[in-house]
Specification:
The complex is a heterotrimer of chains A (317), B (452) and C (285). In chain A, 71% of the residues lie in helices and 2% in strands. Chain A is an all-alpha fold. In chain A, β1 and β2 form a beta hairpin. Chain B is α/β, with parallel strands linked by helices and 452 residues long. In chain B, strands 7, 8, 9, 10, 11 and 13 form a 6-stranded mixed sheet that branches. In chain B, α1 runs antiparallel to α2, α11 packs across α20 and α12 packs across α21. Chain C has one domain: MetI-like (MetI-like fold). Chain C is globular, with a radius of gyration of 23 Å. Chain C starts with 19 loop residues before the first helix and ends with a helix. Classes of the chains: A mainly alpha (317), B alpha/beta (452), C mainly alpha (285). At the A-C interface, α1, α2, α4, α5 and α6 of A face α1, α2, α4, α5 and α6 of C.
Chain lengths: 317, 452, 285
């Protein structure tokens, strides 16, 4: 049997569209009006509480702002400064490493846990809950707890590692290890969420495909790569997008860094989002911070646009 | 930043606003901008003055918040301009968004507390009210000149210091005993300190503890080691003095402490200012900490046997330590800067016995600090000379230099040098040189108030 | 429960050497799961420790005590903060679910000019994080007179592109035929939404409800920034305050954190099966 059968899964919008195209004009207008009314509350809310502040931040990027009500138009000065600021460029590098370490691990671990947790057994509910449990605690507390677990010499992690001859490491104090430690804590915190997402995706895969593959003599690994992965495209798209965006601009990375390392040691965990925060709230450079924030959002936009382009709006039609 | 040239002038605000309006209109796309400062400037109509501080009601030492409540109640009983206390959690007060957001939107408190590390940021932003007119000449000279200097610009006082908190070393007597050491072994030189730190290091304890988290506080605790060898950030010629042997030796000293394995790369608790989770828990045997350690240990680790010694010195160096502490300031752009300024002076800087008593109470009952006024010291003498305070009064405080005030950019340059050497194995000489170049580049364009 | 056999792991293991595989996998997942919560157990155990024991080597408290909890409740008006947080989080959750499902439905199923552009613009706001816009947002909220109010805590928190995005993806996968029948009956769009789409989305809405509730329960930066009246404090602000005041007293901090985590934990345990089932059947994607 050909695994190509998987391609037959089709999302219903395509047929739906065809039906609508034939509809008379007045019906289409009615539909459009309804559409606008349905999105109006959210659209207005987002415009006021997200888009407008972002536009204001965008505007601030062209000003020198002293943080006490003084504004001076500065043209592109903040942007020029940004590209000459080694710390900003360094923070972009750190962010890139963070994303490159975190997002693939989240994908693999999230999917792995989902595969483990979806097995039918008496304890599956318990297991899923256990994996999801870290999400229940606020990040500030998570960071506090991990700070103790990872502390030099006497931290439980170090005591454990010394049993296998890897003691004496400073997980949060060594510039070579700190970012990786933050990644591990992020992974620990977020994996339950992505497990849930993957559980949902796996559920949508018709069992018949596996049975057919099994009859064909395909082994589990082959079935995984030829059925599971291709059919998880929509889910994968979602996971990659959300994981990347939250890793770059989300509060989660920020909260962890804020409590655990403050960007140190030696700037090794200074993510761009944290650097922006420092510039704004510790150095009062609101204009400069706004320029960097705009740049960061622009980078993310480009990434999202690309992803949407490749996947045609995440529809995979 | 030209608009900040004289820091204060209200006219600069006018100018920038007009400029902004004009430019904003040109920037058709970002039309919303023109409304931005207008909204910001729309001030609330309430006349009650707000006073922000970070000592929680209740809390581990109820006397601290009580002190503020009593002071405000006494003021409100006698005056028309009422004051209302508002508490902001300390972590957010010092490192968070609450104050910057409030100030940026014209909602800043009328009276608040700042540390020297933040002085230039607020002063250069033009929000500090000149308090000199409210303080009589006699009281002005009653303040320790080094302490008040970091709150002065052009001989005008912009903040009333509440306390002085000098840095020292705390050590665990029981760990000394275990290592066969006693009080005669207390280190006098850096070399001895490193030696003894190594001796006290065991499989589950560090001998020595310096701050490792980047931040204003780490710089603050490092300055004395810079000064002891005669080092400075800025020379009298206004240029960087950072590329000097004193800098290199101080950077190397902290680096050696970590390299030798005697000092950790990461403390427990909130940081190295936090003595209970570190020295108190036995994570380290000697800790670099300020005078507040006495009261923190008293309330958090009563039974821990500890002692205090003053900072050791490098070869050929002279003893000096750093004295931090917060100051009360008034918002020049607040609802009633005049009343706010009067309050600051009335609270801690007037010749009246009440004012003096408040300072003594603050430094002895609420906290265990050194008072910035000589007469407060004389009044509370007994308290300052008992128990562990005695060594601060007699040995440590006399060599204290006030915490420097530096702009955030300078702080960051120094911080990067410390971090790179201490935790990333960088070459101290190279870091001192790089930092010095960055400092010169910044200082050449700096027009704010004098860096001290 | 209509759980299927593990499709991802291939053939159903029924006999011979493969019989042990499911048991081993179950055991592995249980061990992994337990390892996952070790940090949380540490938090719990610290809440029962005495101050001097906090940084000690043992995981279990040597002399368990309830004093920390008693202290937390006597020192802070915790019940009040818990109520505030509960009120704010549930209001945000309910309103957000309603508005987002409306928007998601329109973006997925209704055709109107500019739909894709609107969707992308809405989605773009997902890329903007709070620290970046907090100053302008504060100014706006102040201009709207929402400082120091429940409305100020609730309204700005409702609008979140993430929920819209999720729901749109969900509605993209709902078969057309279901609503087409309703259209044939002459039902208006609101009726279709209310009596066909909304009941259909119950599983995903309940899954989103827990995510939204959690996110708001744990929110800190925004509540702290716009509220100065202690009566309006939420629990995370109280925790932060506590942490500042009792930095050395981790036993208190962990007791407070446990109290704060407890409601969401209970909620999760009670609805665990439902949530998991709904997420599985709805396919969050």
């Amino acid at each position: 049997m050909a695994f190509g059968g998987a391609e037959g899964v089709e999302y219903e919008t395509a047929t739906g569209r065809r039906a609508a195209r034939g509809a008379p004009w007045s019906m289409r207008r009615r539909e459009a009006v309804a559409g606008y009314l349905f999105i109006a509350p959210d659209a207005i809310g987002l415009a006021i509480f997200a888009a407008l502040p972002m536009l204001l931040a965008l505007g601030l990027g062209f000003y020198e702002v002293d943080g006490f009500g003084g504004y001076r138009f500065a043209g592109l000065a903040n942007y020029r400064r940004m590209f000459l600021d080694p710390l900003f460029l360094q923070s972009l590098r750190v962010t890139l490493f963070y994303v490159l370490m975190l997002v693939p691990s989240l994908y693999v671990v999230g999917l792995g846990l989902a595969l483990l947790a979806q097995r039918r057994s008496r304890i599956s509910g318990l297991v899923r809950s256990l994996f999801f449990l870290p999400q229940m605690v606020s990040l500030v507390v998570v960071a506090l707890v991990w700070q103790v677990l990872l502390v030099d010499k006497i931290g439980p992690v170090n005591r454990l590692m010394s049993l296998v001859g890897l003691g004496g490491l400073s997980w949060l104090g060594d510039p070579d290890l700190a970012l990786a430690s933050v990644v591990v804590v992020s992974l620990w915190f977020l994996m339950g969420f992505y497990m849930l997402i993957f559980l949902g995706g796996l559920q949508d895969i018709p069992r018949e495909y596996y049975e057919a593959a099994w009859l064909d003599g395909a082994n589990p690994i082959r079935a995984f790569f030829h059925i599971t992965l291709p059919l998880l495209r929509t889910t994968s798209f979602f996971v990659l997008l959300v994981a990347t965006v939250t890793a770059v601009a989300g509060g989660q990375a920020f909260d962890l860094i804020y409590v655990m390392t403050k960007g140190g040691p030696a700037n090794s965990t200074e993510l761009t989002i944290y650097y922006i925060y420092q510039q704004a709230f510790q150095y009062n450079e609101f204009g400069y911070a706004a320029a960097m924030a705009t740049t960061l959002v622009a980078i993310l936009l480009a990434f999202t646009f690309l992803l949407f382009r490749i996947t045609r709006g995440g529809r995979f039609e | 930043m030209e608009t900040q040239k004289n820091g204060r002038a209200a006219s600069t605000g006018e100018l920038t606003r007009r400029q902004l309006l004009r430019r904003g209109t040109i920037l058709g796309g970002a039309a919303a901008l023109t409304g931005f400062p207008a909204i910001i400037r729309a001030k609330a109509a309430t006349t009650t003055l707000s006073f922000w501080q970070f000592y929680a009601p209740g809390g581990p030492v109820p006397a601290q918040s009580q002190w503020f409540e009593d002071a405000v109640a006494a003021w409100n009983a006698a005056r028309d301009a009422k004051i209302q206390l508002e508490y902001v959690p300390s972590g957010d007060y010092m490192n968070g968004t609450k104050l910057p957001t409030a100030f940026a939107s014209g909602q800043g408190p009328d009276i608040f507390l700042i540390s020297p590390g933040d002085f230039l940021r607020y002063y250069n932003g033009g929000v500090l009210q000149d308090l000199t007119p409210y303080i009589d000449a006699h009281t002005r000279s009653d303040f320790s000149q080094s302490v008040i200097a970091s709150r002065k610009v052009d001989d005008k006082i912009y903040g009333v210091p509440m306390e002085v908190e000098p840095m020292a070393f705390y050590y665990r007597k029981d760990f000394f005993d275990k290592a066969g050491l006693n009080e005669n072994d207390l280190p006098k030189t850096w070399e001895q300190l490193l030696e003894i730190g190594k001796k006290l290091t065991t499989s589950d304890r560090f001998g020595l503890l310096f701050e490792t988290m980047p931040g204003y506080y780490q710089n603050f605790t490092w300055y004395p080691f810079l000064w002891q060898g005669g080092g400075e950030i800025q020379g009298s010629d206004g240029k960087s003095a950072f590329n000097a042997p004193a800098t290199i030796q101080a950077l190397k000293f902290w680096q050696d402490a970590v390299k030798s394995g005697a000092a950790p790369r990461k403390p427990l608790g909130g940081g190295v200012w936090d003595i209970v989770p570190n020295l108190g828990s036995g994570y380290c045997a000697i800790q670099n900490c300020g005078i507040w350690g006495i009261s923190n240990l008293q309330s958090g680790a009563k039974d821990v046997p500890y002692g205090i010694f003053k900072l050791p010195t490098p070869p050929g160096g002279k003893y000096v330590t750093v004295g931090g502490g917060w100051a009360m300031v008034a918002n020049a752009k607040g609802k009633n800067p005049d009343a706010a300024g009067q309050f600051c002076a009335w609270a801690l800087a007037s010749a009246s016995p009440d004012s003096l008593k408040r300072m003594v109470d603050w430094c002895t009952v609420a906290k265990s600090d050194m008072p910035p006024r000589q007469s407060a010291f004389d009044t509370g003498k007994a308290a300052f000379e008992t128990g562990q305070m005695k060594i601060f009064t007699e040995q440590i405080y006399p060599g204290a230099r006030a915490e420097p005030r530096v702009p955030p950019q300078v702080y960051k340059i120094v911080s990067d040098a410390i971090q790179a050497c201490q935790l990333n194995g960088a070459e101290p000489a190279k870091q001192a040189e790089t930092a010095s170049q960055q400092l010169d580049a910044f200082l050449a364009g700096y027009t704010g108030a004098k860096i001290l | 429960m209509n759980e299927t056999r593990a499709p991802g792991l291939g053939r159903p293991a029924t006999s011979g050497t493969f019989a042990a595989v499911p048991a081993i996998l179950s055991l592995c997942s249980l061990i992994l799961g337990l390892m996952t919560i070790i940090p949380l157990l540490w938090m719990l155990s610290t809440a029962f420790k005495q101050q001097s024991e906090v940084f000690g080597p043992g995981i279990l408290p040597p002399h368990p005590t309830l004093d920390n909890f008693i202290y937390v409740f006597t020192q802070l008006d915790f019940l009040r903060f818990l109520f505030n947080t509960f009120f704010v989080s549930s209001s945000v959750t309910v309103l957000a679910l309603l508005l987002h499902s409306m928007a998601g439905y329109a973006l997925a199923r209704l055709r109107f000019p500019g739909r894709e552009a609107i969707f992308l613009t809405m989605f773009a706001t997902f890329l903007v994080s709070l620290p970046v816009i907090i100053v302008p947002l504060f100014v706006l909220v102040k201009a709207l007179g929402l400082l120091n109010s429940y409305a100020g805590l609730i309204i700005p928190a409702i609008f979140n592109a993430f929920g819209i995005f999720l729901l749109r993806q969900f509605y993209l996968g709902v078969p057309r035929e279901i609503e087409e029948a309703a259209i044939m009956d002459g039902a208006g769009y609101w009726r279709i939404y209310w009596s066909v789409i909304l009941p259909l989305s119950r599983p995903i809405l309940s899954a989103l409800a827990i995510l939204f509730f959690l996110a708001n329960w744990n929110a800190f930066l925004w509540p702290l920034t716009i509220v100065s009246d202690r009566n309006l404090w939420v629990v995370q602000v109280a925790i932060a305050s506590f942490q500042g005041q009792y930095s050395g007293s981790w036993n208190y901090i962990m007791a407070a954190s446990t109290v704060v985590a407890l409601p969401t934990l209970i909620l999760f345990v009670v609805f665990q099966r439902q949530i998991m089932e709904s997420i599985k059947t709805s396919g969050l994607k």
